[in-house]
Design brief:
The structure holds three protein chains of three kinds. By secondary structure, chain A is an alpha/beta fold. Chain A is built from nine helices and eight strands. The chains are: A alpha/beta, B mainly alpha, C mainly alpha.
């Protein structure tokens, strides 16, 4: 059974692009394919002009592609600081010493505003904090391309606004291209300059947020046909 | 080397394989349903062998007749071990590791207790019918293994029927596939675990009796039997009764075929190489569900 | 105060090193030797076992490789055990490199069973290989020094090895390498997305652990003056290693140390004064009880208890 068929996406450098679609349409599968966890049977994934279709996950990370997970996966047994420090040490900034690594990790924690919790074991964080930790860890890689998988889920309105600001800071201050999977429409509309819609593993639509939200095929995919017969 | 010699060897192997299947089915069951890696599984097979041996030698009770009593006894032993050791271990963060370690402790205790009380000398269970052979053409099939095989097939069939056609058995399967869902519909996971574990120990005991009629047994043989349990379980796929049965037959076939040509040692090496290959390329087993 | 801790440690080390000078009875020297050996084995095991979370039941294979290397090289080439022990370590490392490549790709219980398989297959092979004495075993040629000198030399050698192994593991724990291993244990997929070359890191831990265990084995073999597949490859020892690390707590460098010291002391004492079988029964019971009450190891339990006292 095919999870993804004939997808054709282009994400330009410096853009914030969204990927939306009903549950089960293959969005996370696409992320897994891009990051090397699922091998693609056919087709190519090209990053900065080079093909990465057959690369292994850690090689893809080393090329500068970072990701977060839909259900956050912090390293539970470690403290917040240790989580990010490990990520920094193995990131692309070539920091080898533990001391310097911790210093850089602290900066990143300040960036996502989690520095006051640096010694807390990761498993004791609340959901929103875990998401920020996941973000800090992804940024520790010093990525050029960031894949965010439903970072806005479960956040309240204030948290959503804060997260939107953070996303823009990541793009503007750190120069990272962002590709995000989202269900929270407010967040999608507030951040993305371009949106792809997929359903059942097939691309349904592509374009600016306002256009896509008015596309009848998209509306039907989300809301179902208006009439039964 | 005549064809009938080879076929005889293969049949011997198949019979042994069926018994290995019974020996292993309980292990796979607890691993699959409870994530408990019971390294002491085979030691209870040896215990079963001893119980049958003492009943035969001291009270003259034929092993086949003592089976129901033996199964009940080992079921109770299994229940006790579950309550004392397994249940606390199920609360660990890493149940597989904790259960491996704890059951290793149990294995050491039981093996050395048997050694201490009953001495480590090899014994064998030789009821009068076990010595003779049935002849088909010019092939001899030893009755001991044959009876053991019939025992094994019956026991495995009973187990299969229990799992698929009784209320409790279906509860076991439900808990395995979806522990939370099963609990939500009122199935008591503790009770299910207890029954599963106790059944698994009882089945090991029965297998021990079958083994004892073919091979000499002694307390420390349990580690050798443990290797075969691993082999059959992994080849067959963890938790699948039918898979384990088929795997037992396959292993038995290989043993029979190779024993006709190779020295015994190489047969073992071959089997373990097979195990490694399966682990590397098809860890879910050849016949797994 | 940190300086006070260092002074205490140095003092303890001095006492340990100087111990043979007071000419203690052989029993005590052997006891200590056995403790040091288990310290070396558990610490080296813990690199892959505790930090990385890949529990190996085949560590004994590397230990035995070292023991046999010393036996064969001493008997046939007349080399000193102080040369053959590191050589044994190197052979073990090579073995680890060869075996690790396929086996480290397996996860959890499958890896554990494969590692056990390694030890069992090696035992089978050595039982039938005349070059290493097959089922008769090999006796070591003794060095041309007095018996007391022998014991002294090897006591100190094993103590040095135990110290080196512990220090190496402690160093790794605090290094980038250690952080990577822990990440693998916590969540291997996530570790990959962090850019950690997981297969390579696991290999390094496996090979380093094998080298240390092989060297320990090289010295041990000589002290026991005899190797035999059933004794040297004993599955019992492999599991003892696992249990000692688990008992002490496999997430720190001090855990295996404590586990090895406590449990091998207990084991030796019980075996000597009560009897082998009873000791093993008690030992097994002890382990079951420990796991029941402290499923994450003694150190972890102590830490949590301590934290609860404070808070």
């Amino acid at each position: 059974m095919r999870a993804l068929t004939n997808l054709d996406f282009v994400v330009g450098q410096g853009q914030i692009v969204g990927l939306i679609g009903p549950n089960g349409s293959g969005k996370t599968t696409l992320f897994n394919a891009i990051t090397g966890f699922y091998p693609a049977d056919s087709g190519r994934i090209i990053y900065k002009g080079k093909e990465i279709t057959r690369c292994r996950p850690y090689e893809i990370a080393r090329l500068g592609i970072a990701r977060t997970f839909q259900i956050v996966r912090p390293l539970l047994g470690l403290s917040v600081l240790d989580n990010v420090t490990t990520a920094v040490l193995y990131g692309r900034e070539a920091i080898g010493s533990m001391g310097k690594g911790r210093g850089r990790a602290l900066e990143l924690l300040k960036f996502v505003r989690l520095d006051d919790k640096k010694d807390v074991p990761a498993q004791r964080l609340v959901a929103a904090e875990k998401k920020r930790l996941e973000l800090a860890r992804a940024l520790a890689l010093k990525p050029e391309f960031l894949l965010l998988d439903e970072v806005f889920s479960g956040l309240n309105d204030t948290e959503i606004q804060d997260a939107i600001k953070l996303i823009f800071r990541i793009r503007d201050e750190l120069g990272v291209t962002i590709f995000l999977i989202e269900h929270v429409m407010k967040a999608v509309m507030g951040t993305c300059e371009k949106i792809f819609v997929i359903q059942y593993g097939v691309k349904l639509a592509e374009g600016k947020p306002e256009e896509v939200s008015r596309d009848p095929a998209v509306i039907e995919a989300y809301l179902g046909k208006k009439r039964a017969c | 080397m005549s064809l009938s010699y080879i076929i005889e060897s293969i049949i011997s192997g198949l019979l042994l394989g069926g018994i290995y299947a019974l020996l292993s089915v309980g292990f796979g069951l607890t691993w699959g349903t409870m994530k408990v890696l019971n390294i002491s599984h085979a030691v209870f097979a040896v215990l079963g062998a001893f119980v049958a041996y003492w009943m035969f030698v001291k009270a003259g009770i034929d092993p086949l007749i003592s089976l129901p009593l033996l199964a009940t006894l080992l079921f109770l032993v299994g229940a006790v071990v579950y309550r004392l050791v397994i249940r606390p271990v199920q609360k660990a963060k890493d149940v597989i590791m904790a259960s491996m370690v704890a059951t290793f402790g149990v294995a050491i205790v039981v093996e050395n207790a048997m050694s201490f009380f009953w001495r480590p000398d090899p014994r064998i269970l030789k009821p009068p019918y076990a010595g003779s052979s049935i002849f088909i053409g010019d092939m001899a099939i030893s009755q001991g293994p044959l009876i053991g095989f019939i025992m094994a097939v019956s026991a495995i069939t009973l187990l299969y029927l229990f799992l698929h056609h009784t209320y409790i058995g279906k509860g076991v399967q439900a808990t395995w596939q979806n522990p939370m869902g099963a609990a939500l519909v009122g199935i008591n996971p503790g009770r299910v675990s207890l029954i599963t574990f106790a059944l698994s120990i009882a089945s090991a005991g029965l297998a021990g009796v079958a083994m004892a009629m073919i091979y000499a047994f002694y307390p420390s043989v349990q580690s050798v039997w443990t290797m075969f349990v691993f082999l059959v379980t992994i080849v067959g796929g963890v938790g699948s009764v039918i898979g384990t049965g088929l795997a037992g037959l396959l292993i038995g076939f290989i043993i029979g075929l190779c024993a006709a040509f190779l020295p015994f040692v190489w047969v073992n090496v071959l089997l373990f190489a097979l195990l490694l290959a399966i682990l590397l390329f098809k860890p879910e087993g050849l016949f797994g569900a | 105060m940190k300086t006070r801790k260092y002074i205490l440690v140095l003092l303890a080390m001095f006492v340990l090193f100087a111990f043979p000078i007071v000419k203690p009875p052989l029993f005590f020297l052997t006891l200590c030797f056995s403790v040091f050996m288990f310290v070396g084995l558990t610490e080296s095991w813990n690199l892959l076992g505790g930090y990385t979370g890949y529990v190996s039941l085949g560590h004994i294979a590397f230990f035995s490789t070292g023991a046999y290397t010393t036996a064969v090289c001493m008997n046939r080439l007349g080399l000193s055990p102080f040369v053959t022990a590191p050589l044994g370590g190197i052979f073990s490392a090579i073995l680890a490199a060869l075996v690790g490549y396929p086996v480290l790709r397996l996860k959890g219980a499958y890896f554990t069973i494969s590692s056990l398989l390694l030890a069992v297959v090696m035992q089978l092979i050595f039982m039938n290989w005349d070059f290493v004495g097959s089922s008769t075993g090999l006796w070591y040629k003794l060095l041309p020094v007095s018996i007391e000198m022998n014991r002294l030399l090897f006591y100190e050698a094993m103590l040095i090895l135990a110290t080196i192994t512990t220090l190496v593991v402690r160093y790794v724990e605090r290094s980038k390498f250690g952080a990577g291993l822990v990440a693998i244990r916590e969540d291997e997929d996530v570790a990959k997305t962090m850019g950690i070359n997981t297969p390579w890191l696991k290999m390094k831990a496996f090979i380093l652990g094998a080298f240390l265990a092989g060297t320990v084995g090289g010295i041990y073999g000589y002290y026991m003056s005899y190797v035999h597949p059933e004794v040297t490859f004993s599955m019992n020892t492999s599991l003892l290693i696992l249990l000692m690390s688990f008992f002490g707590g496999c997430r720190t460098w001090s855990g295996p140390l404590i586990g090895a010291v406590v449990l091998s002391l207990a084991n030796q004492l019980i075996v000597t004064f009560i009897g082998a079988e009873i000791s093993r029964i008690l030992y097994g019971l002890l382990l079951v009880i420990v796991i029941m009450f402290m499923p994450d190891g003694v150190i972890q339990y102590a830490r949590e208890a301590f934290a609860r006292e404070k808070g």
